[in-house]
């Protein structure tokens, strides 16, 4: 008996002793067989199986079934291995045959050219030994690929026939549905076009109207039943170029697009009956197919009246700014301003009224009327508060829009009625009046008159209010300048009075008191004491007057600086030497830190005056003695002089008033220290005339520390 791995192929046969080779019989069997051991290794295979699977016996015997026959890696839905594993698993567990449904199990081509699609009908049968244990599994298959393919072809043919019939039915239903959708879409498109606030018109290639939406019909007042010729004539009659010239239909954006032109942002004017002129920006282009065939043209009109008007008002604001910048008075500027406003609005008349504070009325500053639209001024040229349109705006401080002056409720006087009749005679109906303000204060009223219907009252009120604000600012500025001039003249008159009417008597009083005091035969001691008091106070008054006159003269420019090259270190050193006696008398020690030289340009006398003031204050306000430190140095081209003391200091609440005129700190009164309160004001003025600053070091405690900073060599002091 011969044996192949795991399987017995030869055996004795009866008494004839003829031996039959069952291996040859098995391998030559007409069916497709494969014998597996319990570990699913291939132990025998029929020749037909080898031919059907395109394999060779010596290459597959002893190998695992699924190693030899894996799933097709190019078929992500392949289930052959999984299904066969499940069937073989059932045979092993149950030890009964298992018949599988037809399986798609692709076979690898021997040349490595991928997998070939195959369909199989498998049956797996267990082989049991004498002890009832599983020894082998016979895997029998039938190649049903052709049958399956034929069945699939038949199924596909039947499916294609059914699909064709179903497709025909669907196409019929789709045609009906699309026809209905097209009808609905056309209705939707027509409704959409009619609901747009943009005017849309279109023509076919033959120049026939195909679209003329509701916005255009309303703009041009065209009924739906008008013939195309009437529509074209209406467009030609009411459409104009930006300069106001008629726009022939042949030159319109739509006709230009029909000739192949792409029109972008072309302005056109439309003057419909009984409406104000409106500005539109037109876009138009040809309608072409993908292959370039022209089907027609379409145009859209966007209303940009408000935007263009706003642009004109911005230009008007710039023009008004130029007018006001060169005019000496509002009376000089008003005519040109009113003409610019009226031209921008396209309105025939404008007026500017200002409040006369003496008689509490509005008086007419200026009026402008376009040619051939002259509107006579009101009787007397004045308006009372709350009377008429202009007077109502004065009273309320709010813009007032009157669409029809002849029906206005604000006509309370004969003058107002006469004005309304004059307006009606010229075709003027609409009035817009806005307040001229300076902040919350009403200074006057700007009133404008229109001879066309207007609808953008909010926009116009805002734009006209901007012009009125410019006028209000100009009036307030000129009045402030006049007031400053008056104050300056008053101050000069006062200083002249002080200089000539006060200084002379004070000097006479002081000199005579001094002579009487020095007289050998003077009166008693109490009289001498009174004379000394008179002399001392007269001297203080003279010092006060001198300081006041000097400060005023420097601030006004009446006292000019004498600018020379100087050494600031020498100026400060001289001031320290001069302050020595006062410091000694007040028990104050002066500590100095000065460079050898610090060159700059300036007025040496005024700078010495400034430094004297700083040192004098430091000594004066150190009543109990102490130390005063002076540090002078050049910091990156800036001269810095710091004067610090440990005296009574300045209360924090008084810091902001430190350099004001006649300022004296609240704690000085308790110390009995004399002074005029002009020293630091004079010092700061001198510093500013040299482009410098004086600041208080608020962190310095106790006492006071002031820092003087003066620019270096090239700074030219103010004259």
UniProtKB/TrEMBL annotation:
<keyword id="KW-0902">Two-component regulatory system</keyword>
<dbReference type="Pfam" id="PF02518">
    <property type="entry name" value="HATPase_c"/>
</dbReference>
<dbReference type="InterPro" id="IPR000014">
    <property type="entry name" value="PAS"/>
</dbReference>
<keyword id="KW-0418">Kinase</keyword>
<dbReference type="Pfam" id="PF08448">
    <property type="entry name" value="PAS_4"/>
</dbReference>
<dbReference type="Pfam" id="PF00989">
    <property type="entry name" value="PAS"/>
</dbReference>
<dbReference type="InterPro" id="IPR036097">
    <property type="entry name" value="HisK_dim/P_sf"/>
</dbReference>
<dbReference type="Pfam" id="PF00512">
    <property type="entry name" value="HisKA"/>
</dbReference>
<dbReference type="InterPro" id="IPR013767">
    <property type="entry name" value="PAS_fold"/>
</dbReference>
<dbReference type="InterPro" id="IPR036890">
    <property type="entry name" value="HATPase_C_sf"/>
</dbReference>
<dbReference type="InterPro" id="IPR050351">
    <property type="entry name" value="BphY/WalK/GraS-like"/>
</dbReference>
<dbReference type="InterPro" id="IPR000700">
    <property type="entry name" value="PAS-assoc_C"/>
</dbReference>
<dbReference type="InterPro" id="IPR035965">
    <property type="entry name" value="PAS-like_dom_sf"/>
</dbReference>
<keyword id="KW-0175">Coiled coil</keyword>
<feature type="domain" description="Histidine kinase">
    <location>
        <begin position="497"/>
        <end position="714"/>
    </location>
</feature>
<keyword id="KW-0547">Nucleotide-binding</keyword>
<dbReference type="Pfam" id="PF01590">
    <property type="entry name" value="GAF"/>
</dbReference>
<keyword id="KW-1133">Transmembrane helix</keyword>
<dbReference type="InterPro" id="IPR003661">
    <property type="entry name" value="HisK_dim/P_dom"/>
</dbReference>
<dbReference type="InterPro" id="IPR004358">
    <property type="entry name" value="Sig_transdc_His_kin-like_C"/>
</dbReference>
<dbReference type="InterPro" id="IPR005467">
    <property type="entry name" value="His_kinase_dom"/>
</dbReference>
<keyword id="KW-0808">Transferase</keyword>
<keyword id="KW-0472">Membrane</keyword>
<dbReference type="InterPro" id="IPR003018">
    <property type="entry name" value="GAF"/>
</dbReference>
<dbReference type="InterPro" id="IPR013656">
    <property type="entry name" value="PAS_4"/>
</dbReference>
<protein>
    <recommendedName>
        <fullName>Sensor-like histidine kinase SenX3</fullName>
        <ecNumber>2.7.13.3</ecNumber>
    </recommendedName>
</protein>
<feature type="domain" description="PAC">
    <location>
        <begin position="101"/>
        <end position="156"/>
    </location>
</feature>
<dbReference type="InterPro" id="IPR003594">
    <property type="entry name" value="HATPase_dom"/>
</dbReference>
<feature type="coiled-coil region">
    <location>
        <begin position="147"/>
        <end position="174"/>
    </location>
</feature>
<keyword id="KW-0812">Transmembrane</keyword>
<keyword id="KW-0597">Phosphoprotein</keyword>
<dbReference type="InterPro" id="IPR029016">
    <property type="entry name" value="GAF-like_dom_sf"/>
</dbReference>
<keyword id="KW-0067">ATP-binding</keyword>
């Amino acid at each position: 008996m011969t044996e192949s791995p795991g399987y017995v192929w030869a055996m004795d046969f009866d008494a004839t002793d003829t031996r039959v080779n069952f291996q040859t019989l098995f391998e030559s069997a007409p069916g497709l067989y494969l014998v597996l051991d319990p570990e699913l290794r291939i132990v025998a295979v029929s020749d037909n199986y080898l031919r059907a699977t395109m394999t060779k016996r010596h290459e597959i015997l002893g190998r695992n079934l699924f190693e030899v026959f894996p799933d097709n890696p190019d078929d992500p839905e392949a289930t052959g291995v999984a299904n066969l594993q499940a069937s073989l698993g059932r045979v092993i567990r149950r030890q009964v045959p298992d018949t599988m449904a037809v399986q798609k199990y692709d076979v690898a081509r021997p040349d490595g050219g991928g997998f070939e699609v195959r369909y199989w009908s498998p049956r797996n049968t267990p082989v049991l030994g004498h002890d009832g244990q599983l020894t082998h599994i016979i895997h029998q298959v039938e190649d049903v690929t052709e049958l399956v393919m034929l069945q699939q072809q038949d199924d596909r043919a039947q499916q294609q026939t059914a699909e064709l019939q179903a497709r025909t039915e669907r196409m019929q239903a789709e045609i009906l549905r699309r026809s209905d959708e097209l009808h609905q879409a056309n209705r939707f498109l027509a409704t959409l076009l009619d609901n747009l606030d943009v005017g849309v018109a279109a023509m076919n290639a033959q120049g026939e109207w195909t679209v003329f939406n509701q916005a255009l019909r309303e703009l041009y007042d065209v009924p739906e039943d008008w013939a195309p010729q009437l529509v074209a004539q209406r467009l030609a009659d009411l459409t104009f170029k930006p300069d106001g010239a008629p726009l022939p239909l042949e030159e319109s954006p739509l006709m230009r697009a029909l000739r192949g032109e792409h029109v972008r942002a072309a302005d056109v004017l439309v003057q419909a009956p009984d409406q104000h002129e409106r500005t539109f920006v037109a876009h138009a282009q040809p309608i072409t197919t993908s292959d370039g065939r022209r089907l027609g043209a379409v145009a859209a009109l966007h209303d940009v009246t408000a935007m263009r008007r706003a642009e004109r008002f911005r230009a008007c604001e710039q023009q008004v700014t130029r007018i006001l910048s060169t005019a000496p008075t509002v009376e000089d500027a008003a005519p040109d301003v009113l003409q610019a406003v009226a031209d921008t609005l396209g309105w025939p008349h404008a007026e500017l009224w200002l409040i006369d504070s003496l008689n509490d009325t509005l008086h007419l500053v200026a009026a402008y009327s376009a040619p051939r639209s002259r509107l006579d001024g009101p009787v007397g040229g004045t308006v009372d508060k709350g009377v008429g349109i202009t007077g109502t705006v004065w009273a309320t401080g709010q813009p007032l829009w009157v669409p029809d002056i002849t029906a206005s409720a604000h006509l309370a006087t004969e003058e107002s009625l006469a004005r309304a009749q004059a307006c009606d005679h010229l075709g003027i109906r609409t009035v817009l009046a806005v307040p001229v303000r300076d902040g919350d204060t009403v200074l006057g009223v700007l009133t404008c008159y229109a001879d066309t219907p207007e609808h953008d009252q909010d926009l116009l009120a805002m734009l006209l209010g901007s012009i009125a604000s410019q006028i209000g600012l100009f009036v307030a500025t000129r009045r402030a300048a006049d007031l400053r001039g008056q104050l300056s003249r008053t101050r000069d008159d006062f200083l002249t009075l002080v200089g000539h009417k006060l200084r002379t008597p004070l000097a006479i009083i002081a000199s005579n008191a001094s002579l009487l005091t020095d007289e050998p035969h003077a009166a008693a001691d109490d009289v001498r004491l009174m004379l000394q008091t008179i002399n001392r106070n007269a001297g203080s008054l003279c010092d006060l007057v001198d300081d006041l006159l000097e400060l005023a003269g420097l601030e006004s420019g009446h006292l000019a600086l004498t600018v020379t090259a100087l050494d600031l270190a020498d100026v400060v050193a001289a001031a320290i030497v001069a302050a020595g006696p006062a410091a000694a008398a007040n028990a104050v020690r002066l500590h100095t830190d000065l460079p050898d030289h610090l060159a700059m340009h300036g007025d040496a006398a005024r700078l010495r005056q400034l430094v004297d003031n700083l040192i004098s204050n430091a000594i004066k306000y150190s009543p109990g003695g102490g130390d005063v430190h002076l540090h002078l140095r050049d910091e990156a081209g800036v001269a810095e002089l710091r004067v610090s003391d440990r005296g009574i200091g300045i209360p924090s609440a008084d810091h902001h008033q430190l350099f004001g005129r006649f300022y004296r700190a609240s704690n000085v009164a308790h110390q009995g220290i004399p002074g005029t309160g002009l020293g630091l004001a004079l010092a700061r003025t001198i510093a500013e005339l040299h482009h410098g600053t004086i600041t208080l070091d608020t962190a310095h405690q106790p006492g006071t520390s002031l820092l003087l900073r003066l620019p270096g060599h090239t700074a030219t002091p103010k004259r």
